[in-house]
Every structure is written in C-alpha cells, then in structure tokens.
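Researcher: Structure prediction, please.
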Amino acid sequence: DPDPNQTGETLEVPVPLLIAEQGENGESRWKEATPSSLGLTYNILIGNMAHPTLSEMYHDLKKDRFNSIITVTDIWSNREKIEGIKNMNYIDQEIREAFDLGVKSIRIAHLADGSTTPTWLKDKPNNEAQQIVLNHVEEQMRYIFERVKQECNTRKVQEITIEFNITNEIWHSSTLSKKFGNRNNAILAVAKKAIDVRNQIQQEKKEGDPNIKIELGLSQADSHYANGEGYRQLLEILTMLENSGIYIDYVDLHGHEKDVNNLPSLDSINQAIRALQKFKNSEGSSIKIRIGEYDLNIMHWSKEDKFRYLKQAKRYYGVVKTSLDAGVDEFSLMGVADPESWFETDIREKQYLSPDADALVFDESGDPKLNYYTIMAATLNFITSQQ
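Model: Predicted structure follows.
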C-alpha cells in the first residue's frame, strides 16, 4: 500500500520470498521462504499446535510453514477419565502428526496442569494422591519418550528434542495444590520427579539410539508481558525453584491477546522476557525463553475497517520482532486458520468468543493474511540485525 491518501496506514517492510541453500552435491538452489524455513537459518524455531484441525486444508498449511516446533497437548483428565483405564489414541495421533509435519522439537503440554486433573483424584487421600501424580509423571514421560523414539526409528530421524512442560496454571486453589499441601509443594514435587526421570532416561540410552534431547520447562497463561497475572505467578515459581536448588531449561510464555483496546506495550513484553533471563539452568546459563502460544483477537476492530488486517499485521510484526530481539528462540501460534482459533470455538471467557476474532494468519479459505508475511518480515529484520 503506497498510501496515496497519506492515511498513515501502511507497513513498508521487506518480505523474503526465496531462500538460497546448498544441495546435496554442493549445487546452489532456491526454496520457498516460510516462517519456519526462514527461522531455521538462524536456529529459531517457529511453530504451531498439533491439535486436530477443522479440515485437511488447514492441516497442510502447517507443513513447511509453522512446523519447526509443534506443541502436543496431553490432557490427563481426557486420557484417564476412569482411574486405571487409559486411552492413548489421542496422544499417539498427535505425535504422529508432529512427525508428519517434520518437526525439530516436540513440546508436551503438560505433565501436571492445575485445571485438567482427573476428577477421581479429588477423592483420594493426600498421600495416595501424591504418589498417583508422581507415578503419572514418570509413566507419561517414559511413554512419550518411547513413542518418539519409535517414530524416529521408523522414519530414520536421527535427532529431535522433547520439551516437557512440567506444570501449567497450578493455582493455590487447584486439586494438585490441595493434595500436596500447597502450590509450591506440588510444583517442587513434580519438578523433582521430572528431573529424576529425565536423568534416568538419559542414562539408559544405548549405542545406536536416536539422539533425543529432553528439556524441562514451565508454562503459564497471561505471561508474555510484565504486568500479566501469569507473569507474576511465573516469577514467584521460578524464584521458589531456584531457592530450592531446582533448575529448569526454559519457560513457555503464552500471549493470548484478547482485546485490541487493551494491549500490553511492546516495551512491557521486552521487559518481561529480559527479566526472566536472570534465572539459570543447571549448567549456569540463562534459561531459554519461548513464546509457546500467540494469537491476536481483533473482534473489536470493525469488519468495515479496511485497515483491520493491516493493524493486526503491524501488531504481529511488533510482537515477533520484540520477542526475538529480547532473546526468544522459539515462537509458536495457537492455530493457523481463523476458523479454528479458540476465540471462535471454545474459549472459556465468553466475552472474547466471536466469529469475527480473526486471530490467526490464514483466512477461512486458507489464504495468507498480511500478518503471515509480517512474521517473516520481523524474523528477517532480526536475522539481518545480528549479522
């Protein structure tokens, strides 16, 4: 948009279309630039969710575009609705889909979640419930590791990372908090167990096994900016873990921007990410910061506003560029096409539910919107600034 009427509603940035690479025989060749392929030129993983899409068309939009890192949802209350009767079909399907998409890393959300604990756990005595939770952590980590290993062997994949989100939204009032006495006890117990299991799995590795790296992290909603309630909770939890001698590898920030009339400033996002880098992993390096889920609900921008998608694209550009500049090494969206957005399907906060949310990067026809291109523009801007 050359902005002939001088409205100011323009965004003039270079967008990469092709990437040069070297072929197997040393020849030069071109491939299409996508968010994932562009990010990989600088070891940035740009990805999405592995949950079933509304159509095969939307599924295909992920491949080669948002497939470097795929988040696989693992909800305990869905998998084991009745104690002892486990249905692993869904998690198996999601792991297969992640491999179909050609991932570099698989993020598992979550080992312990304050809002999705099975209802039957509430009736258990505290000591018994605690042991059930810890057994669950080990069983799931081992099951997922073996499934990933199986897929690696079948598909001849030599190297991949599994990122286990240890906890998510364990509030003080959750079942897990009550069963362990308080929130901090629950998180400490689950984190210690996950670390022990990770170490055992690594010690059991045999010669010839694929190189499967395991990383452990924390996830929290409303956490990608300094004033977010989830961010404050995350700081408390990280400080508590560090004071207890428990070290994780990363934090997974969720940025669901629900109201365009009340968006956090880019400076607040920058401050939040940089402040988290003071926390260290077990080797003494700064923990990694990831944006695990991002979307932007534009229901309050009128459909009659011809600059609606342009304003959304500017915001996407700003959030991606700010995040990468601050040190984020992975950036994932919460879906790809507008009709499958949780803002249009199943968000619990009904005031944000609308068919006009249009929160993602492809429209209902599967065509890319402006924000698809500004994700690449922001990534290119960051990469060139580092050279």
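Model: DSSP finds twelve helices and ten strands in the chain.
Researcher: Thanks, that helps.
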